[in-house]
Every structure is written in structure tokens, then in C-alpha cells.
Amino acid sequence: MTEPVSAQQPNVIRIAHGIFYVTDLERSKYFYVDLMGLNILHETEGALYLRGNEDREWTLKLELAPEAGVKHLAYRVGTPADLDAMTALLDRQSIPYRWETELDRPKLLRFQDPFGVPVAFYAESVKHQWLLQDYHLHRGAGLQRIDHINIMTPDVEGVMRWYMDNLGFRLSEFTEDDKGRIWAAWIQRRGSVHDLALTNGTGPRLHHFAYWMPDMQSIIRLCDILAGARMPESIERGPGRHGVSNAFFLYIRDPDGHRIELYTSDYVTADPDFEPIRWALDDPRRQTLWGAKTPKSWFEEAAPLEAFKGGWVEAKAGELVGLPVHVI
Ligand SMILES: [Fe+2]
């Protein structure tokens, strides 16, 4: 599953963390820790490092900032040699990069992918004892582990091919129109359905950040918790059952508008004879098997990404805008 595809290709293990800018850290702490049930691994005056019950490392950092957005999205690679392979790749493609540090991660390779997404790759990280069987410590809905991210982009096929050709990502599912144009793609390194979803729309922007849940009941429990906290407006879409991935899902918006998906009950792609699943663009079962309508905000709203040189990455509409946008 995580073997290097070639000696020159970095061995990416999985999507590993995201860093969100938030404008009121106490408000975000209430939402993510008290209501959702993420665990605090480390806390400073301006930041919270959070993880699910199964995560052995922090998987979401909330950083206080004047404006909400996404600082970067990070992947873990196998060894420091994979970071060397990564810098060789960046040199070959003339992509600028720099080294940064974060809590527990002494060497973070930072760059912006050719499509504008701010990313980081690291090999070394402090691992902590998981909380999976410390049931007495589970709170809220009991988020379990980081699962995937979803990027909106006007160039789904370009991004998909770059990650597959250069970093060995494998295709799980894709949406295609009758002219052969790819509108959405789900690609993975970990053997799950996806580490990275790419969906057509104005971008690049982060559409959502997803945690895997222990069961469907825990997702419904989060709906009750948000209702009890008088925050039903945080529930944007679902719960429901996706066609793509077969996952049971719920989408919520945090106090800054960041979209989080709670996700469970998908399938594995680790079998060597797995074959990608094609969906026709006009098949309504892709988004939800149950037929529930998707709200307009779903198609239009996503989080801005911080540019490598500062400021925000410019989001481009792309040639497909104007046609119906379909995302999951
Ligand atoms: Fe998702």
C-alpha cells in the first residue's frame, strides 16, 4: 500500500494534518473540543493542536489570525530519503520550497503545488499514545481519525495527474462526462478510498477536511449535540449516504465557515486487483443515494488558501464554471 512506486518517487503515506486560521480561538475550542470531541494535544496562547481518538499525532492545528483561511495541508512520507526525493522533484520542476518546523515535526518541506495548493511534507514526527481504547476520555461525537481533504479546483484532471504521476497516488473513483472530461477524482495512498478528493469549482480552495467516525450513530449524535447547543445552523448537509465512496456522511461548518465532513462506512482500495469506479456526470446517485437536495452554499463556498509568498491564493473560475457543479 505504501511502497515507493519507484526509487525516484517519494513514498507518501497519507494525508496527515491541516492548519486552519481561526478568528476566535475560544469559540473554535468550544466547537472542536467541547462539541465535536477532538482532543487537545498541545495548547498555546495562539494555537490549539488537536487529534482524533485514533490519531497518534496532531491532525488539525487551529491558529489565531485576523482572517479565516487555510495555512497549509500536510502529508506524511516514509523516511527522510523521501524528502530528498521530494526536493529533487521540486528542483526538476522549478517549484520553490523552504523548510519550516511545527510542533512534533522538526522538518516540514513547504511549497505550493503547481495548481496553487499550499502543502507540506514531513517524515519525522513525535507519535503519542492513541486514545482509541481510553473510552472514559472520549467526548462529544468522538471523532476518530483524519481521513481526507477535498480541494475545489477548475483543473481537476491536471491536479489529479500531477499527484498520480509524481507522487504515486492511485485513482479510486472519478466522475466523467460523455466527452471524457473528468469533473471529480478521488485519489489515495493509504489504501482507503481517498486521501485527496478533487472537485470542479472555483479554486484552488479547501472545500472540506474530513474525519473518520466510529459509526453512523456517532454522526447522528453530533447532530443532536449541535442542536442541543442551539447551533443547528452549523449543520449544512446530511446526514446521508454518498454514492461515491459509499460513505455515511455529515457536513458541518465551524464558527469561521470551515467545512468539516464526518465520514464513515466506506471501503478499502488496498486490494491489488482494485479497479477505479467510473461515475457518469449525469448520474444523481453519485452525490447521495437517498436523493436529498444539496444546499447552494455547498457548491459556492470554500476556504481560501494562503499563498507560499503570503496573501491568499487567487481562486480562478475555470472554463467549466457556468455548468452545473457537482462535488461530494
Ligand atoms: Fe469528503
Automatic annotation (TrEMBL):
First-level EC class: oxidoreductase
Domain of life assignment: Bacteria
Keywords carried by this UniProt record: Aromatic hydrocarbons catabolism, Dioxygenase, Iron, Metal-binding, Oxidoreductase, Plasmid
Pfam families the UniProt entry points to: Glyoxalase
Domain VOC stretches: 14-124, 145-265
Cofactor: Fe(2+)
Any one GO molecular function term: ferrous iron binding
SUPFAM superfamilies with a match to the protein in the record: Glyoxalase/Bleomycin resistance protein/Dihydroxybiphenyl dioxygenase
EC number: 1.13.11.15
The UniProt record lists the keyword Oxidoreductase: yes
Annotated family: Belongs to the extradiol ring-cleavage dioxygenase family.
Listed name of the protein: 3,4-dihydroxyphenylacetate 2,3-dioxygenase
Encoding gene (name): hpaD
